[in-house]
């Protein structure tokens, strides 16, 4: 398992990349819904804040098994959330391919 510092660095790197991609799409792609892009930027910032807080405040600090389970769930939740954001970025970039 990675330590807290590495998890925070990875979280910051990923969210910064997503934020940059969203800004690029917002300003350089044609026919982009600016309100949807702004909402997505807010979601990315909220995700970064939420997961940074979860990394800092570990449940069950006394029990290593609980700590391991906590971080496994945190990483799974982060992967799921990042996947959702990437899907939203793709929809923002290609509005014709909206999910049905």
Automatic annotation (TrEMBL):
Highest taxon above the source species: Bacteria
Protein name: Uncharacterized protein
Species of origin: Candidatus Gallibacteroides avistercoris
């Amino acid at each position: 398992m990675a330590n807290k510092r590495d998890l925070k660095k990875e979280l910051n790197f990923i969210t910064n990349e997503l934020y940059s991609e969203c800004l690029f799409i917002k300003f350089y792609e044609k026919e982009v819904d600016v309100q949807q892009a702004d909402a997505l930027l807010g979601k990315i910032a909220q995700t970064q804040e939420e997961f940074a807080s979860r990394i800092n405040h570990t449940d069950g600090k006394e029990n290593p098994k609980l700590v391991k389970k906590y971080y496994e769930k945190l990483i799974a939740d982060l992967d799921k959330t990042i996947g959702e954001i990437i899907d939203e970025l793709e929809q923002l970039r290609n509005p014709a391919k909206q999910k049905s």
